[in-house]
Amino acid sequence: MRASSRTANKTAKKTGASPKVDIRDVAALARVSIATVSRTINYIPTVDPALAARVWKAVEELNYFPNTQARALVSGKSKLLGLIVSEITNPFFPELIHEFEQVAIARGYEILIGSTNYEPKTMELCARRMLERKVDGVAIMTFGVEEFVLDRFTAENIPITFIEAGTHRPNSDTLAVDYRAGIHEAVQHLAVLGHRRIGFISGPLSLHSAALRRQAFLDSLKSVGIAVNPAWMIEGDHSLDGGRDAMKKILANPDRPTAVMCSNDLTAIGVLHALFEANLKVPDDFSVIGFDDVHLAEYTIPPLTTVRMSCRELAEAAVKSLLSHIQLVDGRTEATSKSVIQTRLIVRQTTGLPKGALSDLGGANHPGG
């Protein structure tokens, strides 16, 4: 052991602190050069796998924590990916953050999170914080983004991945969600069950994603020959309270639908609560379908039928997109690409036959009643 390390360790023993370990100690224990340790902990793919395995074993034995700031100064890379989401209180976004972090860590990156709550000023502050921390790339998962924020990242040549509302910029990719496929499955599912009176509670229509989901629903109704009733098309706000209030508006109308589809799961859970308050049973009195398939959807009573938009697929596509730009030699490209995130219906227990369908069927088969 080097003299400096011995001195540090003696001091540590006297004070009760942990011995200080640096990259040279790792190199000595792994029997490799300091350069090999540096390349290994920076996840450079050209390192011989056998040498890398020795380095990681030494890192674990010595409980070594690389100095990320020093590493960034040397490599010019922070090994940080930014992730900007809309609101941390919607369970979809914590699940997305979890998946994004898992994928990023597996690729040798940490993440820096910002939540905008749909406020341009907050989004600007998120962007500033990420620029100050010199993130290597940013995934913008807000379902809507201000142009001036994008300008900040573009000016610093930082790769960006959008969801939905991407623009043609250098170092940018768009992740498009195929809302139409999952929503069409949901409408078909209700139609096969016998529903012809179907309502829809959207998110704020100022959001591009909410408008796309609403239009997908309208197109799906048309494709199966079901008429739209404007009284059953309610604009919500993607929240629990918004779902409950929207359902109360539908229930206040004497001409009611037999099924309601919602633009997200939080809205659907609010709808379930409103139906519970009205002493109506799901799915006996109303069928309900959500969108997102958050983990909580499995644990509502009854478990929620919903359209799945995979957080894992979103995370993997976003990280892959960012790294493809980061790893370019010149760090810049004029080419943009578009990945499609699939959606599909997950049938649980909030959908069933319309109320009275069995008695109507019985009447049809036995005219005498």
UniProtKB/TrEMBL annotation:
The entry's keywords: DNA-binding, Transcription, Transcription regulation
Domain HTH lacI-type: 21-75
InterPro entries on file: HTH_LacI, LacI/GalR-like_sensor, Lambda_DNA-bd_dom_sf, Peripla_BP_I
One MF term in the entry's GO annotations: transcription cis-regulatory region binding
Keyword Acetylation carried by entry: no
Superkingdom per UniProt: Bacteria
Annotated Pfam families: LacI, Peripla_BP_3
Protein name per its UniProtKB record: LacI family transcriptional regulator
Organism: Granulicella aggregans
Top-level taxonomy: Bacteria, Pseudomonadati, Acidobacteriota, Terriglobia, Terriglobales
